[in-house]
Design brief:
about 230 residues, three-stranded antiparallel β-sheet, 8 helices, elongated
Length: about 230
Protein backbone atom coordinates (compact mmCIF):
# COMPACT_ATOMS: atom_id res chain seq x y z
CA UNK A 1 0.00 0.00 0.00
CA UNK A 2 1.25 3.50 -0.85
CA UNK A 3 2.12 5.60 2.15
CA UNK A 4 2.78 9.28 1.68
CA UNK A 5 2.72 12.47 3.63
CA UNK A 6 1.13 15.78 2.79
CA UNK A 7 3.21 18.93 2.98
CA UNK A 8 0.88 21.77 3.83
CA UNK A 9 1.90 25.15 5.18
CA UNK A 10 -1.61 26.62 5.15
CA UNK A 11 -1.41 28.73 2.04
CA UNK A 12 2.31 29.46 1.98
CA UNK A 13 3.47 26.05 0.70
CA UNK A 14 4.36 27.39 -2.76
CA UNK A 15 6.43 30.23 -1.31
CA UNK A 16 8.37 27.83 0.86
CA UNK A 17 9.05 25.44 -2.04
CA UNK A 18 10.27 28.41 -4.07
CA UNK A 19 12.64 29.67 -1.38
CA UNK A 20 14.16 26.19 -0.79
CA UNK A 21 14.70 25.73 -4.54
CA UNK A 22 16.19 29.21 -4.86
CA UNK A 23 18.62 28.48 -2.04
CA UNK A 24 19.64 25.14 -3.58
CA UNK A 25 20.11 26.85 -6.94
CA UNK A 26 22.31 29.56 -5.40
CA UNK A 27 24.48 26.91 -3.71
CA UNK A 28 24.94 25.02 -6.98
CA UNK A 29 26.79 27.96 -8.55
CA UNK A 30 24.40 28.37 -11.48
CA UNK A 31 24.57 31.86 -12.94
CA UNK A 32 21.13 33.42 -12.68
CA UNK A 33 19.96 36.24 -14.94
CA UNK A 34 16.90 37.91 -13.47
CA UNK A 35 14.38 40.35 -14.91
CA UNK A 36 15.02 39.23 -18.45
CA UNK A 37 12.27 38.67 -20.99
CA UNK A 38 13.28 36.05 -23.53
CA UNK A 39 12.07 37.07 -26.97
CA UNK A 40 13.20 34.23 -29.19
CA UNK A 41 15.44 31.22 -29.57
CA UNK A 42 18.69 31.36 -31.50
CA UNK A 43 19.03 28.75 -34.23
CA UNK A 44 22.16 27.68 -36.08
CA UNK A 45 22.30 27.09 -39.82
CA UNK A 46 21.03 23.54 -39.34
CA UNK A 47 18.00 24.73 -37.37
CA UNK A 48 19.35 23.52 -33.99
CA UNK A 49 18.61 25.66 -30.93
CA UNK A 50 21.82 27.31 -29.74
CA UNK A 51 20.64 29.85 -27.20
CA UNK A 52 18.18 32.64 -26.76
CA UNK A 53 17.83 36.34 -27.22
CA UNK A 54 16.10 38.53 -24.69
CA UNK A 55 15.68 41.96 -23.25
CA UNK A 56 16.68 43.41 -19.88
CA UNK A 57 15.06 46.82 -19.66
CA UNK A 58 16.02 48.51 -22.94
CA UNK A 59 19.13 46.33 -23.38
CA UNK A 60 19.25 43.33 -25.65
CA UNK A 61 20.81 40.20 -24.17
CA UNK A 62 22.12 37.26 -26.18
CA UNK A 63 22.75 33.96 -24.42
CA UNK A 64 24.60 31.16 -26.19
CA UNK A 65 24.00 27.68 -24.82
CA UNK A 66 24.55 24.05 -25.73
CA UNK A 67 21.14 23.12 -24.37
CA UNK A 68 18.00 25.16 -23.83
CA UNK A 69 15.11 24.14 -21.58
CA UNK A 70 11.91 26.11 -22.10
CA UNK A 71 10.17 26.46 -18.74
CA UNK A 72 7.98 29.46 -19.47
CA UNK A 73 4.75 27.99 -18.11
CA UNK A 74 1.36 28.02 -19.81
CA UNK A 75 -0.74 30.54 -21.70
CA UNK A 76 -3.73 30.99 -19.41
CA UNK A 77 -3.41 34.76 -19.57
CA UNK A 78 -4.74 34.63 -23.14
CA UNK A 79 -8.24 33.98 -21.77
CA UNK A 80 -10.28 37.12 -21.09
CA UNK A 81 -11.01 35.91 -17.56
CA UNK A 82 -8.13 34.12 -15.92
CA UNK A 83 -6.22 33.90 -12.64
CA UNK A 84 -2.74 33.81 -14.15
CA UNK A 85 0.15 36.22 -13.72
CA UNK A 86 0.78 38.58 -16.67
CA UNK A 87 3.80 36.70 -18.01
CA UNK A 88 1.82 33.56 -18.84
CA UNK A 89 0.94 34.49 -22.41
CA UNK A 90 2.49 31.49 -24.12
CA UNK A 91 5.80 33.17 -25.08
CA UNK A 92 7.66 29.88 -24.82
CA UNK A 93 5.10 28.08 -26.94
CA UNK A 94 5.42 30.73 -29.65
CA UNK A 95 9.23 30.52 -29.59
CA UNK A 96 9.13 26.73 -29.78
CA UNK A 97 6.64 26.90 -32.65
CA UNK A 98 8.80 29.35 -34.60
CA UNK A 99 11.77 27.03 -34.03
CA UNK A 100 9.82 24.16 -35.61
CA UNK A 101 8.51 22.25 -32.56
CA UNK A 102 5.39 20.11 -32.85
CA UNK A 103 2.69 20.44 -30.20
CA UNK A 104 0.40 17.96 -28.47
CA UNK A 105 -2.33 18.31 -25.82
CA UNK A 106 -2.88 22.01 -26.49
CA UNK A 107 -6.47 21.70 -25.23
CA UNK A 108 -5.47 20.76 -21.68
CA UNK A 109 -6.15 23.94 -19.75
CA UNK A 110 -7.52 23.81 -16.23
CA UNK A 111 -10.90 25.52 -16.15
CA UNK A 112 -12.57 26.27 -12.84
CA UNK A 113 -14.00 28.91 -10.52
CA UNK A 114 -11.71 31.77 -9.55
CA UNK A 115 -12.05 35.21 -7.97
CA UNK A 116 -12.58 37.50 -10.97
CA UNK A 117 -13.52 40.62 -9.07
CA UNK A 118 -11.63 41.90 -7.18
CA UNK A 119 -8.83 40.64 -9.41
CA UNK A 120 -6.74 38.51 -7.04
CA UNK A 121 -5.36 35.74 -9.26
CA UNK A 122 -7.00 33.37 -6.82
CA UNK A 123 -8.71 30.09 -7.53
CA UNK A 124 -11.64 29.23 -5.28
CA UNK A 125 -9.98 26.48 -3.33
CA UNK A 126 -10.98 23.82 -0.85
CA UNK A 127 -11.24 25.96 2.30
CA UNK A 128 -13.63 28.29 0.51
CA UNK A 129 -16.03 25.55 -0.60
CA UNK A 130 -16.02 24.11 2.91
CA UNK A 131 -17.49 27.41 4.10
CA UNK A 132 -20.64 26.38 2.17
CA UNK A 133 -21.01 29.74 0.35
CA UNK A 134 -24.31 31.07 -0.89
CA UNK A 135 -23.85 31.42 -4.63
CA UNK A 136 -26.28 33.83 -6.20
CA UNK A 137 -26.91 35.22 -9.68
CA UNK A 138 -27.62 38.81 -10.69
CA UNK A 139 -31.28 38.34 -9.67
CA UNK A 140 -30.17 37.47 -6.14
CA UNK A 141 -31.28 33.84 -6.60
CA UNK A 142 -29.35 30.86 -5.27
CA UNK A 143 -29.09 28.63 -8.31
CA UNK A 144 -26.92 25.57 -7.61
CA UNK A 145 -29.79 23.36 -6.43
CA UNK A 146 -31.54 23.70 -9.82
CA UNK A 147 -28.59 22.00 -11.50
CA UNK A 148 -28.23 19.11 -9.03
CA UNK A 149 -30.04 15.98 -10.18
CA UNK A 150 -32.34 14.03 -7.84
CA UNK A 151 -30.40 12.42 -5.02
CA UNK A 152 -27.49 14.86 -5.25
CA UNK A 153 -27.52 17.64 -2.68
CA UNK A 154 -25.87 21.07 -2.78
CA UNK A 155 -23.82 20.09 0.28
CA UNK A 156 -22.53 16.91 -1.41
CA UNK A 157 -21.56 18.84 -4.51
CA UNK A 158 -19.68 21.51 -2.52
CA UNK A 159 -17.90 18.86 -0.43
CA UNK A 160 -16.70 17.24 -3.66
CA UNK A 161 -15.72 20.60 -5.14
CA UNK A 162 -13.54 21.14 -2.05
CA UNK A 163 -11.50 18.13 -3.15
CA UNK A 164 -10.92 18.95 -6.82
CA UNK A 165 -10.35 22.31 -8.44
CA UNK A 166 -10.55 22.01 -12.23
CA UNK A 167 -13.70 21.02 -14.08
CA UNK A 168 -13.96 17.28 -14.54
CA UNK A 169 -16.90 15.13 -15.57
CA UNK A 170 -15.68 12.39 -13.24
CA UNK A 171 -17.29 13.63 -10.01
CA UNK A 172 -20.48 15.40 -9.05
CA UNK A 173 -18.36 18.47 -8.28
CA UNK A 174 -19.03 19.20 -11.96
CA UNK A 175 -22.48 20.63 -11.08
CA UNK A 176 -20.80 23.67 -9.50
CA UNK A 177 -18.96 24.49 -12.74
CA UNK A 178 -21.95 23.69 -14.96
CA UNK A 179 -24.27 25.82 -12.83
CA UNK A 180 -21.96 28.85 -12.78
CA UNK A 181 -21.25 28.60 -16.51
CA UNK A 182 -24.91 28.29 -17.48
CA UNK A 183 -26.03 31.16 -15.25
CA UNK A 184 -23.48 33.43 -16.90
CA UNK A 185 -24.21 32.21 -20.45
CA UNK A 186 -27.95 32.67 -19.94
CA UNK A 187 -27.48 36.31 -18.94
CA UNK A 188 -27.80 36.02 -15.18
CA UNK A 189 -24.14 36.74 -14.45
CA UNK A 190 -22.79 39.76 -12.58
CA UNK A 191 -21.52 42.86 -14.45
CA UNK A 192 -18.04 41.28 -14.19
CA UNK A 193 -19.20 38.05 -15.85
CA UNK A 194 -19.28 36.03 -12.67
CA UNK A 195 -21.68 35.01 -9.94
CA UNK A 196 -21.68 36.15 -6.32
CA UNK A 197 -19.89 34.04 -3.74
CA UNK A 198 -21.25 35.01 -0.37
CA UNK A 199 -19.86 33.89 2.98
CA UNK A 200 -21.36 36.64 5.11
CA UNK A 201 -23.23 34.00 7.14
CA UNK A 202 -19.85 33.14 8.68
CA UNK A 203 -18.40 35.48 11.28
CA UNK A 204 -15.08 37.29 10.80
CA UNK A 205 -13.45 35.37 13.65
CA UNK A 206 -14.38 32.04 12.09
CA UNK A 207 -13.17 33.16 8.64
CA UNK A 208 -9.83 34.25 10.09
CA UNK A 209 -9.47 30.89 11.79
CA UNK A 210 -10.46 28.73 8.81
CA UNK A 211 -8.93 30.59 5.88
CA UNK A 212 -6.69 33.39 7.18
CA UNK A 213 -4.69 34.00 4.01
CA UNK A 214 -7.74 34.09 1.74
CA UNK A 215 -9.57 36.39 4.11
CA UNK A 216 -6.67 38.82 4.46
CA UNK A 217 -5.98 38.79 0.71
CA UNK A 218 -9.57 39.59 -0.20
CA UNK A 219 -9.70 42.39 2.37
CA UNK A 220 -6.59 44.09 0.95
CA UNK A 221 -7.11 47.61 -0.47
CA UNK A 222 -7.95 47.82 -4.18
CA UNK A 223 -4.65 49.59 -5.00
CA UNK A 224 -2.78 46.39 -4.12
CA UNK A 225 -4.81 44.06 -6.40
CA UNK A 226 -2.97 42.59 -9.41
CA UNK A 227 -3.65 44.24 -12.78
C1 LIG B 1 -3.94 30.82 -9.19
C2 LIG B 1 -3.23 29.50 -9.41
C3 LIG B 1 -3.28 28.53 -8.42
C4 LIG B 1 -2.63 27.31 -8.61
N1 LIG B 1 -2.67 26.39 -7.60
C5 LIG B 1 -2.01 25.23 -7.74
C6 LIG B 1 -1.99 24.28 -6.69
O1 LIG B 1 -2.60 24.48 -5.63
N2 LIG B 1 -1.29 23.13 -6.87
C7 LIG B 1 -0.60 22.89 -8.03
O2 LIG B 1 0.04 21.85 -8.14
N3 LIG B 1 -0.61 23.77 -9.04
C8 LIG B 1 -1.29 24.93 -8.93
N4 LIG B 1 -1.29 25.82 -9.95
C9 LIG B 1 -0.60 25.48 -11.19
C10 LIG B 1 0.89 25.71 -11.05
O3 LIG B 1 1.11 27.03 -10.59
C11 LIG B 1 1.54 25.52 -12.41
O4 LIG B 1 1.20 24.25 -12.92
C12 LIG B 1 3.05 25.60 -12.27
O5 LIG B 1 3.42 26.83 -11.72
C13 LIG B 1 3.69 25.45 -13.64
O6 LIG B 1 5.09 25.51 -13.43
P1 LIG B 1 6.04 25.94 -14.58
O7 LIG B 1 7.41 25.97 -13.99
O8 LIG B 1 5.79 25.08 -15.78
O9 LIG B 1 5.60 27.41 -15.02
P2 LIG B 1 5.45 28.72 -14.13
O10 LIG B 1 5.48 28.43 -12.67
O11 LIG B 1 4.27 29.45 -14.68
O12 LIG B 1 6.79 29.50 -14.46
C14 LIG B 1 7.02 30.03 -15.73
C15 LIG B 1 8.00 31.17 -15.57
O13 LIG B 1 8.45 31.59 -16.85
C16 LIG B 1 8.45 33.00 -16.89
N5 LIG B 1 8.34 33.44 -18.28
C17 LIG B 1 7.28 33.31 -19.14
N6 LIG B 1 7.57 33.85 -20.33
C18 LIG B 1 8.84 34.34 -20.23
C19 LIG B 1 9.69 35.02 -21.13
N7 LIG B 1 9.34 35.31 -22.38
N8 LIG B 1 10.95 35.36 -20.68
C20 LIG B 1 11.34 35.10 -19.41
N9 LIG B 1 10.56 34.46 -18.52
C21 LIG B 1 9.33 34.08 -18.92
C22 LIG B 1 7.24 33.42 -16.04
O14 LIG B 1 7.39 34.75 -15.59
C23 LIG B 1 7.35 32.39 -14.91
O15 LIG B 1 8.20 32.86 -13.88
C24 LIG B 1 -1.94 27.04 -9.81
C25 LIG B 1 -1.88 28.03 -10.81
C26 LIG B 1 -2.52 29.25 -10.63
C27 LIG B 1 -2.46 30.30 -11.72
Amino acid sequence: MYQGSIVDLRGSTGLRILSVLKQANAQSGVQVVENIRILDLLLDDCGRVRGAVGQIGQEQAVIHARAVVLATGGAGRLFRKNVNPPTLEGDGWAMAYRAGAQFVNMEFFQIGPGVVNPRMDFIIHSHMWRLKPRMTNSNGQEFLERYCPAGVSVDDVMDLKAMSYPFSVRTNAKYVDIAIFKEIMEGRGTPNDGVYFDVTHIGEEELLKRCPITYKTIRKPEATWPK
